[in-house]
């Protein structure tokens, strides 16, 4: 590991700490769902180490509980996690074009809302070691949280669990608000995202759609609209200039 | 038919990994199409905004607590607080709001 990689790894670990805390709280409740589906603590641990996806795992556990087919489980996982496909496409542009395949395959292991969020917030190209640092801290939080959820069920007071679960959203805000302050298009996009998401969740017309589908549809619609109305090809070069300073 | 939980887990893990790995492994060059680049640039902001609201109000016991945490988070992030500070203070705001008897 070069010095630069080492520093990036440490930065990743630092930024991964709040993620690990948030993960712990969320995955704790996920563990309760896993227990209800009949998973053992070890199975829940393995599920979380291999999936790293809250909505995806919830969906999977409920299908396991219902005794669904493996094919149904595969399709459901695909649909609920489809936003990671978009995130990985987006993240591919944050990696230096010459980044070797092994790094691409390792970074891919943990493309989650949060890890993705802090990775794209890095100025310039992403050093894979930054992601590894964050993953090294976040995955244990996620996996042990799920495991403990199965073992201990409801020992933490509900108040504490609900307060902790807000932490993940606080992290999202810390990622999207500072760029929104600098860039009016992003500010408008964030506001439109809040409004559209609120409407789609409240209008009975859309009540038949799963959360995953709603997220994907709104993401594509809003990002597409922004790209057509306000195309920008100066974004990357601006970021790279900032990095030099 | 008796299903094996380990096979379920394998199926879930395989699909999840392929979704994430395929774009990263296949898109090796910088995309030059202006609109496609812009689209991918806007994706994270759109998706994180959509996932935050109104979900934050459903994560807490009372919607008001989530709303207060949201407002606090926006103000703190706007003022330049770090990721960790924003996350922790949002939790604190939600916790305190839920303790208040008026809500």
How would you sum up this structure, described in words?
The complex is a heterodimer of chains A (245) and B (103). Chain A has 12 helices and no strands. Chain A has 245 residues and is mainly alpha-helical. Chain A is globular, with a radius of gyration of 19 Å. The model of chain A is unreliable at 235-245 (pLDDT under 50). In chain A, helix 1 (3-36) runs parallel beside helix 3, helix 3 (54-66) runs antiparallel to helix 4 and helix 7 runs parallel beside helix 9. Chain B is mostly helical. In chain B, 77% of the residues lie in helices and 0% in strands. Chain B has helices spanning 5-26, 34-52, 55-59, 63-78, 83-99. Chain B starts with a helix and ends with a helix. The model of chain B has no long low-confidence stretch (mean pLDDT 89). Classes of the chains: A mainly alpha (245), B mainly alpha (103). The interface between A and B is large, with 104 and 78 residues.
Summary, kept brief:
Chain A is mainly α. Chain A is built from twelve helices and no strands. The longest helix of chain A is centred in the N-terminal third of the chain and has 34 residues.
Summed up, the helix count of chain B is 5
Main sheet properties of chain B: none
Alpha-beta classification of chain A: mainly alpha
Mean pLDDT of chain B: 89
Using only C-alpha atoms, the radius of gyration of chain B works out to 20 Å
Strand content of chain A: under 5%
State the end-to-end distance of chain A: 25 Å
Element string of chain B (H = helix, E = strand): HHHHH
Q: Which shape of chain A, going by the Cα principal axes?
A: globular
Largest pleated sheet of chain A: none
Number of strands of chain A: 0
Share in helix of chain B: over 70%
Total domain units of chain A: 2
Mean pLDDT across all residues of chain A, rounded?
A: 86
The greatest interface between two protein chains, and residues involved on each side, is: A-B, 104 and 78 residues
β content of chain B, as a range? under 5%
Q: What is the chain-wise order of helices and strands of chain A?
A: HHHHHHHHHHHH
């Amino acid at each position: 590991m070069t010095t630069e990689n080492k520093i990036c790894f440490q930065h990743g670990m630092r930024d991964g700490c709040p993620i690990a805390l948030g993960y712990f709280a969320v995955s704790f409740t996920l563990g309760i769902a896993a227990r209800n589906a009949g998973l053992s603590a070890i199975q829940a641990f393995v599920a979380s180490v291999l999936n790293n996806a809250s909505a995806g795992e919830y969906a999977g556990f409920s299908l396991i509980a219902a005794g669904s087919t493996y094919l149904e489980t595969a399709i459901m996982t695909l649909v609920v996690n489809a936003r990671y496909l978009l995130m990985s496409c987006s993240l591919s542009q944050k990696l230096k074009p010459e980044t070797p395949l092994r790094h691409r395959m390792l970074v891919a292991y943990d493309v989650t809302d949060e890890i993705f969020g802090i990775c794209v917030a890095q100025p310039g190209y992403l050093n894979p070691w930054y992601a590894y640092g964050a993953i090294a801290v976040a995955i244990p939080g996620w996996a042990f949280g799920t495991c403990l959820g199965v073992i201990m069920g409801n020992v933490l007071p509900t108040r504490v669990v609900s307060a902790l679960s807000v932490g993940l959203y606080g992290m999202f805000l810390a990622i999207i608000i500072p760029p929104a302050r600098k860039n009016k298009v992003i500010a408008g996009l964030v506001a439109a995202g809040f409004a559209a998401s609120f409407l789609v969740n409240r209008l009975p017309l859309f009540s038949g759609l799963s959360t995953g589908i709603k997220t994907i549809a709104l993401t594509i619609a809003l990002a597409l609209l922004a790209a057509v109305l306000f195309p920008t090809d100066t974004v990357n070069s601006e970021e790279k200039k900032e990095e030099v300073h | 038919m008796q299903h094996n939980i380990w096979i379920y887990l394998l199926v879930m893990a395989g699909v999840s990994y392929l979704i994430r790995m395929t774009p990263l492994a296949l898109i090796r060059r910088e995309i030059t199409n202006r609109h496609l680049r812009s689209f991918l640039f806007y994706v994270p902001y759109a998706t994180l905004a959509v996932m935050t609201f109104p979900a934050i109000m459903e994560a807490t016991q009372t919607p008001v607590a989530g709303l207060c945490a949201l407002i606090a988070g926006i103000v703190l992030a706007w003022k330049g607080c770090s990721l960790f500070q924003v996350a922790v203070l949002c939790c604190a705001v939600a916790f305190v709001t839920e303790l208040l008897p008026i809500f």
